[in-house]
User: What shape does this take?
Amino acid sequence: MMRLLITITIIATTILFCVAYTNLPRTLRIATHTSRAHSALHSTPTYSQSPFSKLVEQKLISKFEGQGSIDRVLDSWRSLDSEETLVAPYGDPDSPDYSPDYCRQEARSFIKNLKAQAWWDPSETPNLSYYKHLESKFPVILEEFKSVTSSSSKMSSGNNIWASAADSTSASSYGPDWKTLVLMDRTTWDPVNSVLFPKTCEAIIEAGVPCVEAFFARMDGKTKIKPHTDSCNFILTSHLGLVIPSSGSNLCRLRVGDSTRQWLTGRVSVFDTSIYHDAHNDSDEVRYVLMLRVWHPDLSEVERKALQYTFDCLDVPGLLSEEEGERWMAERQVEIMRNVPEGVLGGEEGGEMTETTMTKKERKRMMKKGGRGGGAGFG
Assistant: This one.
């Protein structure tokens, strides 16, 4: 009975943490004294750490011992558990484009001392150099996108095709006219949709994108996305413009902080969505982009792995089990999650799942699970 109660407690706490990482509903604000990126946070307050949080922290320490410092990840995990929020001013108050509605960074899931920058130049950032290969593959990606999305039979076989934002907060900001088609969610390829778009997924892999999420995003004409933050500072957002109505005319544009830029067909942009931002499509047509969530360049390799491990613990809590068999099964499940689905690399566009690549039970589970793209709390 005691083991059952402990199991129930862990499952319940896991659910709460999954909600925390997707909806991020925390309240405690931490003041900062600088308008720039390296904000000095107040010391973490004393609090009663939850049992699940303690288990994850213990596993993180033991798993990554001797591999490099993960202190910032541990601090992030504790901050999440204690309901802290990073809030910092951003931008130049003397700028003519300064607005308190936009010029602030807010993240309920955060790593300390990461550079806050509205727009990143990928040509000047080694960890963002993937943009060159992705732009070179733009014709291939666009051709596949149009071919698949124009086929009703292929689209009907997909998983949560053109889904709205997953949670109420995101839905309120993005509105009903912003929809996504998920390819990857928290570094796990969608086993259905990725096979529909194998050339796109192959391009992402070949480019070496430090990818956490990948999805197509559509925005209807004559619509806008309200100013909002995606509440996570260790993930940046990258767009490849696919179908940009009147590209270059500034009808489709995005404001981040005190700076506004337009989407351009075939070009990659990278920006920080923990800074308040909005979007406009003033044209009469639908705008499509390939949207990628990527690790912040200031994270070390071991920090990325540690953050990924916290995601895995949330998705597969069996990793924390004291039972060797259960833990082995959980590790096997994570290993399978990391694999690229058969039929992606070297696959034909619009391919279909077969019983050798996915059982009916697995397909049903994935269809029920759906994708979090756009509503993941990463923005």
Remarks:
- Residues 2-23 form the longest helix (22 residues).
- The two ends are 41 Å apart (CA to CA).
